[in-house]
């Protein structure tokens, strides 16, 4: 997938894929260097957000916080990590919408309350943010940021007289949407997952230490053993007594974000009972069964299309080749191309290997198309290399509706599948053939659990009600 940025023309060169969400990591480990392990955990989750990073550490009396704009490696130094003292920590890497990527919205947040200090890290989106914010304003609450994470803390504080767990349960009754949350007080690490399990959260252990993270790859990185996924609607409390579990909700229909499996999660993660790499390979196999086209080779759009392309090649018997070379050394802030050379943006990220491609019929596999701009540029590059045919295969169905749960999938006006039929998209991109994975083909991969996923962006019903005002003003929503 191409990381997004805006050039002088205002065009988002990420173009064809949704942007990352956010990643959270927390550890309770009295005998461990929790700050450094959180740093490594965030490093493993860097793909989920590249705009800001932060770590909060508690020593039982106070909470230290360090956060800033930038990558994990840019925000934290050896000196800073060494200065952290404590036995419990949470961390966050963030992606936000354009215009909201400022330090005030970087996480974790640290708050002072009558019960002591409290830190919060949040992945997801609330859908009733306008109503909740208006209510809290009416009670005299003042906000420091534009994120809905502050709303969560204020709601917990309102019910704190009932005890911490009951306060969280009351908050979960009031908030709607998608969320995985880590809370840190003086001596506890708390994990919370929304009732539908839209956003991911898993639990691991390293010796006597417990860890909560967005993905299991972060557990692997810090040498922890994966225990299980946090259940939808579950609250996990970790402290000196060990681990306790509380259920705020039971019986809600599961609606895990299917885009975690298509694109967002790292290929070496396991999520809600499925191995991401295996799922993506099976997507490619199903693509080959649905689109039995003749070609000389199968190539991926790196990196997100690699597993599906290997599956397509294995099922079809057509050789797999690396036809596009990805430049992995471009940071977040490299100098952007001017409007006169805006196509250079894609070439800085990807370059065709001419001696592999010239004169060949190519099947190019990618994970998704949102706007169609980048796909068209890649197809044009292949043409310039002398490729005879380009068949574009997408390992997900057409994106026809926006997401309100924490993924930056554009409003309907920018979704090419809303504006054009399949043939119109093919012509716009300039491919000789175009095939999307069918929704049935995608869901059948999950067998008996096929109904456990949110597929609203592909035209299905939203699992959590979307207020009409939010549907009209989606660009105002924050993503965490």
Q: Could you characterize what this model shows?
A:
- The chain is of the alpha+beta class.
- The protein has two domains: 23-255, 4-Layer Sandwich (Glutamine Phosphoribosylpyrophosphate, subunit 1, domain 1), CATH 3.60.20; 278-452, Rossmann fold (3-Layer(aba) Sandwich).
- It contains 17 helices and 23 strands.
- The strands form six sheets. The protein has a seven-stranded antiparallel sheet. A six-stranded antiparallel sheet has the order 5-6-7-8-12-13, covered by helices on one side. A four-stranded parallel sheet has the order 17-20-21-22, sandwiched between helices.
- Strand 15 (270-271) and strand 16 form a beta hairpin.
- The longest helix is centred in the middle third of the chain and has 15 residues, at 276-290.
- It is globular.
- It starts with 22 loop residues before the first strand and ends in an 8-residue tail after the last helix.
- The relative contact order is 0.14.
- The model is unreliable at 1-15 and 469-480 (pLDDT under 50).
Highlighted features:
disordered N terminus; seven-stranded antiparallel β-sheet; Glutamine Phosphoribosylpyrophosphate, subunit 1, domain 1; single chain; 480 residues; Rossmann fold; 17 helices; alpha+beta
Summarize the structure.
With 480 residues, this protein is α+β, with helices and mostly antiparallel strands. It has 17 helices and 23 strands. Helix content is 28%, strand content 24%.
What's the total count of β strands? 23
Distance between the termini: 20 Å
CATH architecture group name of the largest domain: 4-Layer Sandwich
Integer tally of domains = 2
- Can you identify the CATH superfamily of the largest domain? Aminohydrolase, N-terminal nucleophile (Ntn) domain
Question: What is the helix tally?
Answer: 17
């Amino acid at each position: 997938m191409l990381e997004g940025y805006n050039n002088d023309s205002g065009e988002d060169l990420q173009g064809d894929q949704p942007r990352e969400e956010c990643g959270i990591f927390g550890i309770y480990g009295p005998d461990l260097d929790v700050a450094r392990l959180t740093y490594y955990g965030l490093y493993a989750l860097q793909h989920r957000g590249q705009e800001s990073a932060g770590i909060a550490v508690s020593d039982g009396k106070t909470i230290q916080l360090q956060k800033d704009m930038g990558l994990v490696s840019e925000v934290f130094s050896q000196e800073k990590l060494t200065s952290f003292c404590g036995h419990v920590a949470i961390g966050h890497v963030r992606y936000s919408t354009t215009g909201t990527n400022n330090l005030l919205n970087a996480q974790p947040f640290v708050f002072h309350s009558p019960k002591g200090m409290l830190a919060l890290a949040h992945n997801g989106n609330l859908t009733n943010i306008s109503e909740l914010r208006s209510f809290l304003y009416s009670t005299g609450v003042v906000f420091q940021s534009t994120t809905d994470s502050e709303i969560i803390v204020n709601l917990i504080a309102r019910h704190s007289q009932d005890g911490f767990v009951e306060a969280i349960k009351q908050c979960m009754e009031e908030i709607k949407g998608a969320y995985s949350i880590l809370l840190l007080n003086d001596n506890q690490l708390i994990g919370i997952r929304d009732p539908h399990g839209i956003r991911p959260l898993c639990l691991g252990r390293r010796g006597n230490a417990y860890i909560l993270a967005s993905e299991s790859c972060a557990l692997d990185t810090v040498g922890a053993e994966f225990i299980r996924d946090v259940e939808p609607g579950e609250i996990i409390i970790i402290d000196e007594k060990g681990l306790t579990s509380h259920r705020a909700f039971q019986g809600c229909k599961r609606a895990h974000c299917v885009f975690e499996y298509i694109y967002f999660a790292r290929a070496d993660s396991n999520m809600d009972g499925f191995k991401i790499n295996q799922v993506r390979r099976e997507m490619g196999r199903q693509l080959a069964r649905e689109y039995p086209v003749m070609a000389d080779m199968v190539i991926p759009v790196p990196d997100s299309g690699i597993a599906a392309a290997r599956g397509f090649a294995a099922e079809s018997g057509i050789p797999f080749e690396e036809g596009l070379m990805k430049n992995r050394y471009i940071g977040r802030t490299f100098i952007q191309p001017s409007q006169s050379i805006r196509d250079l943006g894609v070439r800085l990220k990807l370059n065709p290997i001419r001696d592999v491609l010239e004169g060949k019929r190519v099947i190019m596999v990618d994970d998704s198309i949102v706007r169609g701009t980048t796909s068209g540029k890649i197809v044009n590059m292949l043409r310039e290399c002398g490729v005879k045919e380009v068949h574009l295969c997408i390992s997900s169905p057409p994106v026809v509706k926006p997401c309100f749960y924490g993924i930056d999938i554009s409003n309907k006006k920018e979704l090419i599948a809303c504006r054009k039929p399949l043939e119109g998209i093919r012509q716009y991109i300039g491919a000789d053939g175009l095939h999307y994975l069918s929704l049935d083909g995608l869901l059948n991969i999950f067998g008996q659990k096929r109904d456990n996923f949110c597929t609203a962006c592909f035209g299905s019903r939203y699992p959590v009600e979307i207020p009409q005002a939010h549907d009209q003003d989606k660009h105002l929503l924050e993503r965490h």
